[in-house]
Amino acid sequence: MKSLKIEVYSNEHPPPHFHVKSPNIDASFDIENCEKLEGEISGKDYKVIKFWHSEAKELLIKSWSDTRPTNCIVGEYVGT
């Protein structure tokens, strides 16, 4: 896998999640547990994303919470 583009959009639907894009991937994942929500991904690529998530979860939470507009239906991240 050459490069991953990680995106957190500001006006989203629940649950808090992030998007991963690359030449082979266009999928979204739950911030809490990295469960795949949408898209197709190989097992090998999913392992890479899960490892990345384990290292970057705090950054994802901060990014999600910092970018919520006041009228966002989801609001700030409230994880377990």
Molecular structure report:
The chain has one helix and four strands. A hairpin with a 5-residue loop joins strand 3 and strand 4. The protein is an alpha+beta fold and 80 residues long. The model has no long low-confidence stretch (mean pLDDT 86). It has one domain. Strands 1-2-3-4 form a four-stranded antiparallel beta sheet.
Number of helices: 1
**Outline:** globular
Secondary-structure element pattern, one letter each: EEEEH
Low confidence ranges: none
Report the portion of residues in β strands.
Answer: 15-25%
Q: Can you describe this structure in just a few lines?
A:
This protein is of the alpha+beta class and 80 residues long. The protein has one helix spanning 43-66, and strands spanning 5-7, 17-21, 26-30, 36-38.
Salient structural properties:
single chain; 80 residues; four-stranded antiparallel beta sheet; alpha+beta
Task: Spell out the blueprint of helices and strands.
Layout (H helix, E strand, L loop, with lengths): L4 E3 L9 E5 L4 E5 L5 E3 L4 H24 L14
Antiparallel strand pairs: 1-2, 2-3, 3-4
InterPro entries: DUF4160
Protein name: DUF4160 domain-containing protein
Pfam families: DUF4160
